[in-house]
Every structure is written in C-alpha cells, then in structure tokens.
C-alpha cells in the first residue's frame, strides 16, 4: 500500500476511502464481510480515527458499505448487479444462496412455556426476515437477567428484545443500556417510571372484555382467581380490567369472590384437584362464573370443579387468559382471551430494527389487542 500521509487540504479521507476500495478488491471480500475498522485503518495509513471515520461514512453514503452500532462496518450488496464505487459485482462475488446477515438480535426470556415458546418461534421468524440471527437467553432471576444484559452489551450485540423477570421497577442495567442507546425493546411488560420502547398485549382491555362477555351471558356473581400479582404488570392489569368491567355495569365488587393464590399454580399438576381452588369454590357457592388470571389457573379450576362434582359450565362457567394450546383439549374446552404472539413479535422486531437504523423518535409503546375465543366452558345464564 502506498503512503497516503497527506494534508487536510488534499481531503485525506477521500484518499483513505479509495484505499478501502482497493482493500475490498484485493481481499475479494463478499457482501456482508467485515471491512477494516476505523482503528485498523488509522493504524494502517497513519491517519487519525476521525479521518478513518469520515472515509467509512463516505463509502456508506455511496451505498458501498453499511455500518452497525457496536458491530462494525460491512460490505454491502451490489445494487441490481451494477458496478458500485469503481468495482464491479464480479470483483465481489456473491454466494448464490447467501443470506444477508446484518447482525445478531438477542431475545431474553424468563421461562419456557407454551406462551413464551410461541413468542420465541415468532420472533425467530421475524428476525430472519431482517437478515439477522437470533440469540436466545433464558434467565433464572433478576440478577441473572442483569448479568445477561451486561454480557450481551459488552459482546457487541446489535439489539435486545427483553421479556423481563417480575420486578417492582425497571432494573438499573436496563437504564444503563438505555443511556448507552443500545437498541432495546421490552415485551409483555411495561415500566411506567421510565420511557422505554415497549410492546405488550392490552391485558387490561382483554380482561375487561372477557368480564363484559360473562355479564352479557347473564352472570352477575363473577369471581376472580389468579396467581399473586407480585409486581407483574400483566397480572395487575388483568385484575384491574375485571374490577372496572363490574363497576361500569353497576355490579357490586364482592371481595370474597376474589382470590389470589398463596402458592403459584403448579403447571405440572393442573389436571389434579387443587386445594386452594377447592376452598375458593366452596367458600363462594353463589358464584356462577369465574374469571381466571391465566389459562393454567383456569384449567386447574375446571379440573378441581369437575372432581368436586360441580359441572362446568352447567353450574359454574370458567374462563381464562392467553389461549395456550392445551386450552382446546381439556374435558371442557376453555373459553379464553387469545394473545396474538405473532403480532407481538412482529411489532417488537420492527421497532427494534427501527432503532438499529438510528431512529431518533421518542420511546414508543405499542399495545397489541386481544380477542375472545369461545369454546364450551361458558353457559348463558337466564
């Protein structure tokens, strides 16, 4: 390589840009291969990092390369096979079946279930459409989640989609990543104390509409049962939707009809008679319907009622929330609120890629609407 230690008057960065093109040609780089970094170019040609940065920016503006925050600079695809910047498509051969790779997106999940599995599958499909790879991380608790976020950021991840652990407030690590402007989208949770990109189902309205559905079916003594709220916004909003629907229809809130479990529903034993659900049903014989905070609790409640000799829905209607796969295959198929995981994933990935593209819009909150799936667990009450 020739020495290009020239003056600023000779527009040094233009010469560096020309040298980068020569490097691309001599190394026969393929589209999406990494191009030498600002630091490497500065050392190679004895120029400042600012000069190297300007050279790469020039090539990016010409469409010869693309740059990803914290990832580096990569060779772009030739447009329609035409020559770009003095080198032809023959100079940078493209693998016929090559798939574009613009980076790695991390999806962090707190647990694996039917619902989260559907989110994972939908997110992977959406990420692939954007030419990225998906990295899946499962966290055990809040500390593990913070550690995972820190490691991913240090490793130069392109962006992160986070399904947070249940916690009272937004974690310090999430706030640090927000300040660092690392593309980050929260899903299925919302932190009201900080503005941050968020995509979540409208749990409040889903529960409101389901309670309204029961009222329209003639029920007035409608109970509510759920796992403990435990600072989880989705659980709190579902409970609030139930309460507001009763109030809006002038139905008194009977707090003896409301039950929050002391021990979380055991998803491995939901086909067995559950002592907590049994006591709740026995203590409230006037209830004609029960709104459950999620499908696991609903399925457990149905099995418990049936084993108590209480027919569902003839004597007791029961509904759930989420529409897990099992809901359609229990002895009394469950009427429930369906959460559209494909739309959730698509919205989260699209929003994240907008941030990867350096969008300067204010933080965005996207609510995904739910729908009611009618099966056989509700009876019209005359």
UniProtKB/TrEMBL annotation:
It comes from the Bacteria. One of its GO terms (molecular function) is transcription cis-regulatory region binding. Keywords: DNA-binding, Transcription, Transcription regulation. It holds the Pfam family GntR. Residues 10-78 form the HTH gntR-type domain. The keyword Transcription applies. PROSITE patterns: HTH_GNTR. InterPro entries: LacI/GalR-like_sensor, Peripla_BP_I, Tscrpt_reg_HTH_GntR, WH-like_DNA-bd_sf, WH_DNA-bd_sf. The keyword NAD does not apply. This is GntR family transcriptional regulator. It comes from Paenibacillus campinasensis.
């Amino acid at each position: 390589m020739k020495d290009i230690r020239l003056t600023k008057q000779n527009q040094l960065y233009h010469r560096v840009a020309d040298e980068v093109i020569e490097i691309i040609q001599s190394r026969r780089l393929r589209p999406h291969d990494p191009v030498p970094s600002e630091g490497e170019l500065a050392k190679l040609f004895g120029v400042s990092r600012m000069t190297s940065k300007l050279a790469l920016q020039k090539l990016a503006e010409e469409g010869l390369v693309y740059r990803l925050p914290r990832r580096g600079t990569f060779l772009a695809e030739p447009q329609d096979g035409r020559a770009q910047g003095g080198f032809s498509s023959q100079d940078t051969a493209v693998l016929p079946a090559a798939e574009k790779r613009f980076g790695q997106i991390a999806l962090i999940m707190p647990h694996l279930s039917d619902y989260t599995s559907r989110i994972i599958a939908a997110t992977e499909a959406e990420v692939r459409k954007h030419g990225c790879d998906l990295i899946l991380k499962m966290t055990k608790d809040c500390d593990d989640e913070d550690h995972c976020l820190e490691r991913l950021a240090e490793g130069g991840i392109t962006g992160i989609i986070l399904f947070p652990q249940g916690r009272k407030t937004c974690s310090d690590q999430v706030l640090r990543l927000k300040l660092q402007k690392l593309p980050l989208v929260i899903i299925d949770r919302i932190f009201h104390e900080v503005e941050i990109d968020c995509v979540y189902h409208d749990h409040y309205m889903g529960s409101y509409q389901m309670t309204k559905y029961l009222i329209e079916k003639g029920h007035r003594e409608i109970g509510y049962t759920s796992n403990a709220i435990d600072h989880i916004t989705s659980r709190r909003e579902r409970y609030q939707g139930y309460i507001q629907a009763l109030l809006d229809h002038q139905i008194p809130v009977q707090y003896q009809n409301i039950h929050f479990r002391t021990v979380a529903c055991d998803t491995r034993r939901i086909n067995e008679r559950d002592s907590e659900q049994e006591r709740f049903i026995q203590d409230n014989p006037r209830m004609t319907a029960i709104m459950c905070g999620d499908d696991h609790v609903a399925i457990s409640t149905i099995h418990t009622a049936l084993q108590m000799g209480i027919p569902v829905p003839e004597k007791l209607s029961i509904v759930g929330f989420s529409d897990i796969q099992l809901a359609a295959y229990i002895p009394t198929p469950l009427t429930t609120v369906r959460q559209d995981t494909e739309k959730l994933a698509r919205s989260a990935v699209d929003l994240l890629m907008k941030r990867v593209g350096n969008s300067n819009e204010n933080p965005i909150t996207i609510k995904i609407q739910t729908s009611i799936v009618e099966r056989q667990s509700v009876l019209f009450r005359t």
